[in-house]
From TrEMBL:
InterPro entries: Cyt_P450, Cyt_P450_E_grp-I, Cyt_P450_sf, Cytochrome_P450_monoxygenase. Gene3D superfamilies: Cytochrome P450. It comes from Cercophora scortea. Its main location: membrane. This is Cytochrome P450. Belongs to the cytochrome P450 family. GO terms for biological process: verruculogen biosynthetic process. The chain crosses the membrane at residues 20-37, 44-66, 78-96.
Length: 558
């Protein structure tokens, strides 16, 4: 055994070792300049890691087998080469990113220019990227370098140029995080997106929305019955709006309510969703790590558990057939007409996941913020009632019809104002600039730069809105001068990738707001000032809010 380890004992040739180390370091530099800075490699993380991990024992064995060097000496020499290679690779990266990178002139945190790991590390404790972006923009200006090739841009002109229909920007590598799962939101292929959107258009047609509202109304009524049963006691409004939104999503999206409003059995589902989103969101700055993390058994459990939940919902829905009028029914109909290849099934799974996420938590969070403002500003409730009660009386219905919706300008203003201040996706949608680059507000951004527009930061910017941090719904109809740049509002996204479920989400919110305010007064619970609610929100790509204690009391009609 000792002979195998030591084998031939050769005199130490320090000159040869130095030369070999220099060559290994040079190889690291060449790898960086010739490969890693060219094109996208985020989906090759496992292949690259496997290659390097396999190369080390192969080099060690080759020295032992063909050069007669002992295993220990061979391993030590391989380790020297590996260390030199890594030093060369990362030295090249550091010098390039710090001195020669096209984004070198943009200001931002010093360490962020060298690695996206810095940005990711800053999110570990609080997961509050929306707040971090606001702090960085206040410190560094409208254009902030948040990573080696990443910029956050907080100027209103950027919305159309980066996200609009005519934009040449494309979705960033982060959208590949769920591969092989793919959906309408995550696909980076514009043609594939256009084809898939046609399937969703059937599910969100005007006729379908009318039918959906008829099915939403009983859920709104059930919500009110459950709140009435509390008899004016404080309730965790955050949870109850989640129960409503998830039941609506189950009914309209999956064809079967979760019955969270009247049963406790499935109330664990919202936490499962958020755990899955948290695992993905924290890796947004470092998309190359996602394929690796997802294969590690001791991390990423939330994402895996949520993925299995999605599979279970698809299988349950398949057993009932595709004829029912719900979103997944339309997706299943499209799947049945396809060749049913694995790629088709991944689309089905992916779009089911999108339906669950987009149709539940974002609506619930938006409702929670809206009722926070209504509880804080009672005059807004009086204005809303003065507006919608005559409209209900004129229509003879218990919810606003399309004609009534068009006249409910203050109701729509309340919703838009809350979304402006608290967009469901607060840190925006990452995009990559075209090869020729992009000019925004007289500032040239080089090509192949990942750009994001921090929507929450922009929504509270005085450059976009007068008295930007105040809740003033009238700015959306009677005081338009308070909106300095209409293009800055992008709570539902803009352009070809805007939210397909926007209309349905608005239907749900209007329906419940009218139902609740028709029957209840709303106020902050004793001891609740909203501070923790407003400041404790977490950014998991979609925002997660903490408990908000509200009191709903039956109206005393005179």
């Amino acid at each position: 055994m000792a002979s195998i380890l030591t084998a031939t004992s050769l005199p130490v040739d320090w000159h040869a070792h130095t030369t070999q180390a220099a060559l290994a370091a040079a190889a690291g530099v060449v790898t960086h300049l010739g490969y890693f800075i060219r094109g996208e490699h985020h989906n090759n993380g496992i292949a690259i890691a496997t290659f390097y991990l396999s190369l080390l024992p192969l080099l060690t064995f080759a020295q032992y087998q063909y050069l007669g060097i002992g295993l220990l000496t061979s391993a030590a020499q391989t380790g020297l080469w590996a260390a030199a290679y890594v030093v060369g690779l990362y030295t090249s990266m550091g010098i390039y990113r710090g001195v020669f990178h096209p984004l070198r002139k943009f200001d931002g945190p010093f360490l962020a220019r060298f690695s996206n790991l810095y940005h990711s590390w800053m999110l570990v404790e609080k997961s509050d990227n929306y707040r971090l972006m606001t702090e960085w923009h206040e410190k560094y200006g409208d254009f902030v370098r948040t990573g080696p090739s990443n910029l956050s841009v907080n100027v209103p002109e950027a919305v159309k140029l980066v996200l609009g229909s005519g934009s040449k920007c494309v979705k960033s590598p982060w959208y590949d995080a769920s591969l092989p799962l793919v959906n309408l939101h995550s696909t980076r292929d514009l043609k594939a997106h256009e084809l898939r959107r046609k399937v969703f258009n059937k599910a969100f047609s005007p006729a379908a929305l009318v039918e959906y509202e008829e099915r939403i109304t009983p859920l709104s009524n059930l919500f009110c019955e459950q709140i009435a049963a509390k008899r004016g006691s404080p309730v965790n409004a955050t949870s109850w709006f989640k129960y409503f939104a998830f039941d609506a999503m189950g009914e309209l999206g999956l064809g079967e309510s979760f019955h969270m409003l009247d049963q406790e059995e499935n109330r664990w589902v919202p936490d499962l969703l958020m755990a899955g989103m948290a695992d993905i969101a924290q890796l947004q700055p470092i998309p190359w790590s996602t394929p690796i993390i997802h294969r590690l058994p001791f991390v990423g459990g939330g994402a895996r558990n949520f993925a299995q939940f999605v599979i279970d919902q698809v299988e349950k829905r398949q057993k009932r057939g595709s004829k029912a009028q719900d979103i997944l029914g339309f997706l299943l109909a499209a799947y049945e007409k396809s060749e049913k290849k694995d790629a088709d099934y991944q689309w089905l799974r992916g779009d089911t996941r999108l339906t669950i996420v987009g149709g539940s938590d974002t609506t619930a969070t938006s409702l929670t913020f809206i009722f926070y403002y209504l509880a804080k500003y009672p005059d807004q409730v009086r204005k809303l009632r003065a507006e919608f009660e005559p409209l209900l009386a004129a229509s003879g219905k218990d919810h606003l019809d399309p004609k009534g919706v068009s006249k409910a300008v203050h109701l729509n203003g309340v919703i838009h104002e809350s979304l402006r201040l608290n967009p469901p996706i607060p840190s925006g949608f990452p995009r990559v600039t075209p090869p020729e680059g992009l000019t925004i507000a007289d500032t040239y951004i080089p090509g192949e730069t990942t750009v994001v527009i921090p929507l929450r930061t922009m929504g509270r910017s005085e450059a976009c809105y007068e008295r930007a941090t105040e809740f003033i719904p009238e700015r959306w109809y009677s005081k338009p001068d308070m909106i300095k740049c209409k293009d800055a509002f992008a709570a539902f996204g803009v352009g070809p990738f805007s939210c397909i479920g926007r209309a349905l989400s608005l239907v749900e919110m209007r329906n419940l707001i009218v139902k609740v305010l028709t029957r209840f007064d709303v106020a902050l619970a004793p001891g609740e000032d909203g501070k923790e609610f407003m400041e404790g929100a977490k950014d998991h790509f979609i925002i997660e809010v903490s408990a908000l204690q509200l009191v709903f009391t039956e109206r005393k009609l005179v």
